[in-house]
Amino acid sequence: MPERRQVKAMRRAMNKRGITWYLVPTSDDHGSEYVDGFFKTRAWLTGFTGSAGTALVGPAGTWLWTDGRYFVQAEEELRGRAVTLMKMREEGVPTIEDFLAQYLYDNDVLGFDGRLLSCREAEGYVAAAKRAGAAVVMDADLASEAWEDRPAMSKNPAWFMTAEEAGESREKRLARLRIAMREEGATVHLIPSLDDIAWLFLMRGSDVRCNPVVLSYAAVEEKKAYLFVQDGVVSAEDAAALAADGVTLRPYAEFYDYIAALPRSARVWYDPARANAGMVTRLKKGMGFVTKASPIQLWKACKNHVEMDRIRLAHEKDGAAMVKFLCWLQDNKGKIPMTELSLAEKLDSLRSEQEGFLDLSFGTISAYGPNAAMPHYCATPEKFSEVKRKGFYLVDSGAQYREGTTDITRTVAMGRLTKEEKLHYTLVLKGHIGLATARFPQGVRGLTLDAFARRPLWDMGLDYNHGTGHGVGYVLNVHEGPNNIRWMLAPGGESAQILEGMLTSNEPGYYEPGSHGIRTENLVLCVKDEKTAYGQFLRFETVTLCPIDLTPVLPELLTQEEKDWLNAYHARVREVLSPRLTEHERAWLKKATKAI
User: Fold this and answer.
1) Other C-beta atoms within 10 Å of 293: how many?
2) SS3 label, residue 167
């Protein structure tokens, strides 16, 4: 099987640097999950377009590691290409570190661009190379040489939220951070993460598709703060407002020079899980360090009451767009040609008509039949399916509004269903309701809550190969930590407490390869419940507003409590959304939300 020309170009660049093994992660200099086109080296190299994965080019082969969300997609995209798929956490599949330790030899050299790996990740790879006796080159930016038609780095204008929209001023957020720094004895706080920077400075942008962030770095000192951005990104008016709050703008490319120039007397705070290895290697020996997560992550995750109210409004708008789409879908199925692409375009256009719409929050996943068995399937102009009047159609989508970020999945019966499809759909719904109705004492982590959603499937010996919930930002990234709901944690991963104000997805699913996929997703806000002798209890408020298709439901499998929740939820959907709909759409919604 011949190698891709991209792999050959990379191998030539490796040979010039004397590198025998080269790692290519899916990241940018900021540790982002989704990246600007400039940073999509792994996709360019291998042809695999999923949002997670790491490629390894060796002397006689190329390997790609990715997780369970992308196994089917990766198999299809790598077919006919000289790239070996390594299915992470599957039996018999080594981790990248174990693979390197096994196959590197004494005279080998492992290379990577340290800016694309957190220092914690880099440490693991360096340790594996040392176990094998191999050398390591950490500053190997080979993409700049091998990728001839590499796109330019995005450079879009930034915009800033008002204190009224954020529920807090930039000045107050900087003051909070400095208090935390003093408590840790830190004199400098380095911030490479785009979403953390966006939250701290009330700054938003569009440098990464669907993520309203600006390519930037930040450094906060005891009396000064520096925001490193590309020239011309921040307007003169906004620059003046930043200066009034003690924030100095500096060129994006100067961040690493700033780090190198820090005095040896500085005590630097950085997060080993987020700071890239290129940053850390520029710090002087003998400095003092605080190596722990930034408090910004938790502050950002726990939305204040202004943010929570605006998030509810965003979901009203989004719910109206979804109802308009589902009504149109039912009116027109079997009457006009439908494809996965045409349905995604229709839904995207309806969202764009909503007041305050900024962008999608991720590329719409529009999947019919067997394609829905791939949780992160992506239809393309080259490969898509016609949507027919049978089986399931799954749409996972969301938007960025001026008031908040949305993410919703609905699975819709397009026609005749099998008994198995109805059973799987009902089990997923039971799991969704189980988590939506959970009450738990403060301190409980997502690791514990995951079983609420999986039990109906587990009782039948079934499961799904992805997390049940991820955190969601406020006009920010659709995937935001630290909150998540999952029992299977990555090595070294943590399960955060689920706290008041956290916005998290509730999305159990089931996937039958070659047949169908089912997922029901709402976003839930963690809010206070009663306080008892055992402490403060919490619960979830479902903020997503959209009917759940009742056609596939097997009512006899639902308990009375589950029916009560579903009926109450649909009554609220009908009450809140009806004023935003046409008379025809209200009539459809009334039928779609009938009590069972």
Assistant:
1) 16
2) coil
> The tokens of 160 are what?
């800033």
Q: Which two tokens stand for residue 267?
A: 């005590």
Whether residue 268 contacts residue 262, with contact meaning beta carbons closer than 8 Å, is answered with yes
Token pair for residue 259?
A: 């780090």
Tokens for 499? 């706290």
Decide: helix, strand or coil at residue 173: helix
5-146 folds as Creatine Amidinohydrolase; Chain A, domain 1 (3.40.350)
Q: Coil, strand or helix: which one is 408?
A: strand
Q: What is the CA radius of gyration of the chain?
A: 25
Q: What is the DSSP letter of 174?
A: H
- Greatest alpha-carbon pair distance for the chain in Å reads 74
| pLDDT surpassing 70 at residue 303 | yes
Report residue 566 as tokens: 């579903």
For 64, counting Cβ atoms within 10 Å of its Cβ (0-12 exposed, 13-18 middle, 19+ buried), the class is buried
Model pTM score: 0.91
pLDDT of residue 490: 67
Q: Compute the average pLDDT of residues 572-591.
A: 98
Mean pLDDT over each residue of the chain, to the nearest integer: 95
User: Which structure tokens are listed for 295?
Assistant: 């408090």
Which residue's entry shows tokens 């988590």? 435
Could you give the CA distance from residue 463 to residue 523 in angstroms, rounded to a whole number? 21
Q: Quick one: tokens of 321?
A: 């767009």
Number of residues assigned to the chain: 596
Given a cut of 70, is residue 275 above it in pLDDT?
Answer: yes
Distance, in Å, from the CA atom of 38 to the CA atom of 362, rounded to the nearest integer, reads: 18
For the chain, domain boundaries = 5-146, 159-293, 302-592
**What pLDDT is recorded for position 380?**
86
Check if the beta carbon of residue 66 is closer than 8 Å to that of residue 53: yes
Query: What is the SS3 assignment for 560?
Result: helix
Of 118, 120, 115, 121, the C-alpha closest to 138 is: 115
Domain pair 5-146 / 159-293, same fold:
yes
DSSP 111-172: E-BGGGSBHHHHHHHHHHHHHHT-EEESB---HHHH-TTPPPPP-PPPEE--HHHHTS-HHH
How many secondary structure helices (H) and strands (E) does the chain include?
19, 28
User: Looking at domain 159-293, what is its CATH homologous superfamily?
Assistant: Creatinase/prolidase N-terminal domain (3.40.350.10)
Span 474-515, pLDDT tens digits? 999 999 999 999 998 766 667 899 999 999 999 999 999 999
pLDDT category of residue 50 using cuts at 50, 70 and 90: confident
The single residue listed with the structure tokens 């009560």 is 564
